[in-house]
Amino acid sequence: MTTTIRPLQPSDRAAWEPLWASYQRFYEVVIPPETTDLTWGRFQDPAEDMHALGAFDEGDRLVGIVHAIFHRSTWLPKWTCYLQDLYVDDTQRGLGTGAALIDAVANLARENGAGRLYWMTHETNTTARKLYDRIAERSGFIQYRKVL
Length: 148
Known about the structure:
This protein is α+β, with helices and mostly antiparallel strands. The protein is built from four helices and five strands; from the N terminus they run βααβββαβα. It has one domain (about 5-135): 3-Layer(aba) Sandwich (Aminopeptidase), CATH 3.40.630. Helix content is about 35%, strand content about 25%. The model has no long low-confidence stretch (mean pLDDT about 95).
């Protein structure tokens, strides 16, 4: 099966929203609609360092999404790219779609002068971790959060 990866356009929003909702259900979070609207607008704003890419199957159906954010780092002179969200439709898992989306973000990061690409996943996401352990190095860092 051929998958095409490309930046999401304003006309892709209706196809993106169900995958975004499924991603939230998977992680048991609810992101308010106004935050989703703001996020989508940031993806479409060339002044923002946020990007959304989509994986489309042969029938031009959106089957996977990935979001990336560029930021500076105190550890590197180059930009850093954070792969914040990755979701692949259940019907496409195990077919290389997730790896293709990660590769597309890696290419985007290189094209934009980033020196590092990183991401996180929940410790219970064993399916994704099998892929991540195969294609990347685990940093050993543990994330902490403080609600503000």
